[in-house]
Amino acid sequence: MEVLQLMGRDSRKKSPRSGRRVVFTENYPKYISIGRVVAPWGDRGEVKVKVLTDFPERFALLEKVYIGKTARPFQVKGFRFHKGFAILQLEGFHTRSQAEALRGQFIQIPIEEVMPLEEGEYYEFEIIGLEVRTEEGKFLGKVKEIIYTGANDVYVVEGPEGEVLIPAIEDVILDINLAEGRMTVRLMEGLLP
After folding, report:
1. Containing H/E element for 98?
2. Dist. CA 78–CA 75, nearest whole Å
3. Of the chain's two ends, which shows fewer C-beta atoms within 10 Å, N or C?
4. pLDDT score, position 176
């Protein structure tokens, strides 16, 4: 998962060292994906991982990852980058056929290990489920999905007006209050159905 300017997954715009800390709630997922196994690599049980984070440096720090829907833990025995992919050696995988069993599986970390973000940056899991109101206080619904476009992200809000598409731009998103679970927006002409 990545982090974008107004929302995100697990990425960043600037160095995370002095950023805001994520405050976790019971609604957040337990794990967050940072990569996906695309294939075995070589014949020693390594796997080739498509990086799904804008913090690729985190792979060098990994001691343990969690794989698949059951989040099965695996110790990381080795790591390197090759042409934009992470190559991981996991404990217990010594052959190509063993590594093949991981094809398509997500590489995850506990949600508590996400990188801190700059002010104005949010993880996707922080945005999904937020109540959305206009600056006048009109309830539009809750964010149910995020569409990633080339120009800007779009929040899909489901509510009494039906589905409303909210562009994630500063002119529209006035405030995000995670403590209150609320987003305040200024509607542009034609946004409501």
Report:
1. helix 96-100
2. 9
3. C
4. 93
Residues 7-16 as b or e (16 or more Cβ within 10 Å = b) = bbbbbbeeeb
- For residue 92, count CB atoms less than 10 angstroms from its CB and return exposed for 0-12, middle for 13-18, buried for 19 or more: exposed
| Claim: this prediction has a pTM higher than 0.85 | no
Per CATH, the homologous superfamily of domain 128-185 is PRC-barrel domain (2.30.30.240)
The C-alpha atoms of residue 19 and residue 22 are separated, in whole angstroms, by 9
CATH of 13-113, one of 2.40.30.60, 3.50.50.60, 1.20.1510.10, 1.10.10.10: 2.40.30.60
pLDDT tens digits for 1-12? 333 333 334 433
Mean pLDDT to the nearest integer, 95-123: 90
Confidence of residue 120 (pLDDT cuts 50, 70, 90): confident
CA 183, CA 193: separation in Å to the nearest integer?
19
Token couple for 94: 């010594």
